[in-house]
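Our consortium's second objective concerns turning raw sequence data into structural hypotheses that experimental partners can test. To show how far this objective has progressed, the report includes one record in full. It was chosen at random from the queue rather than selected for favorable results. The single chain below, 471 residues long, was entered without modification.
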Amino acid sequence: MPLKPRKPLRVIPAKGRGPKKPPRRPPPPQRPPLRISQILKWADAHRARTGRWPTVNDREVHGVPWEIWRNIHQALYKGLRGLPPGSSIARLLARHRGLRHAFNAPPLSINLILNWADDHHRRTGDWPKASSGRVLAAPAEQWHNINAIMIRGGRTLKGGLSLPQLLAKRRGVRNRRDLRPITIPLVLKWADAHHRWHGSWPHASSGPVLGEPGETWAAVQAALFLGSRRFPGGTSLASVLQEHRGVRNIGDPPRISIHEILAWADDHRRRFGRWPSENSGHVAAAPQENWSAISQALCHGRRGLSGGTTLACLLAEQRGHRHPRQTPRLTEAIILRWADEHRRRTGKWPNQLSGDVFGQPGERWGNIQAALSTGNRGLRGGSSILLLLAKERGVRHRLHPPPLKLSTILAWARAHRRRTGRWPTDHSGPVHGVPGEGWWGIGCALSRGTRGLPPGLSLGRLMAPLRKNEP
């Protein structure tokens, strides 16, 4: 006996867990019907407030928050809200307010465009370009729109012609995209004329080309380098002048040798009495050369040199000239010997302003002062020429005078009284027979308590007892 098929079980979903039905979208609100007169009234208010007519891209209608210009455009185009279909905001304004419609522009002609260009040139002094903005003689037109229509065609124009091409053909205006070809003989002809007029050869920043309106040497340089205006490119104005006129090219100077550099250095020594350095400027025997550039070539191995040296090192090696950064070591004994020689010759001890050291080429007392102060050339530092002489030769140091005693000052005062008949004061000048000492300095030391004296005294107080004991 065949079995009967079982009925499928009915699954009852649990309460609250079954599929939810999407909520019903509320019907769109019924917007009031529109009238052409009302739309024009809103457009007039928009122009009065903003200075321009409304477009599809404008937002809400001013004063009517529930209306949007895009919705009004849709209603005009599709015939909604009681309006006839097949219109738009632009067409409505063109029909009722005389606003120009982009798809219903007036025809153009070559003569009309030329008249506008002549008016632009007469007003501004320049010929119009695609970026010149509005047409002055026709404010509703834009020069970039005219250029685009001339290229692609439209508004009764055939196309295939741009605004620069039209002005170059009919008004002789220079067109940067259709310039005359450049050749080497032509560039040399312009360069020779420049040299005859200015006395120097042109370069990229020499400005306009003489006798060629619109041409500049910067444009010639760009054409020679980049390869425009039917020129193959890969060269420069300096290279052309170097090859055909023998003009020195700064970017490709000639090769030099160590022998030439030494000959120029010897000539510099004969002329000026000293060896050249990087800061000596132009080479006297070769005005086109510069000592700084020569030192750079020696250092980096340019212009046929091996590199790894400098002008100072070369002169130190080949001519025995002392290198400014390879100075010999100093000791206090050597400095004192030079100071004794200086005093024997001049009668005065040296200081940092005494110039060259006698019998020591390249040594200066100013450099010795710096070495004593900073501790270079084997010295300890923290000293000076005057401190060293004060310590080793007993020379009086202006900033470190020797100590004084009251008995010594009183003895000097009695000697001053016997010699002049008056007791000394702060204004009595130097102390007789005591080099470096003056009564003004002694008075300051008594007042301040320096040089080993007690403070708070003066020459008058110190000598008051002596005055009382006088007969």
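The partners drew two points from this record. The two ends are 173 Å apart (CA to CA). The chain is about 45% helix and 5% strand. Both points have been shared with the crystallography group to help prioritize constructs.
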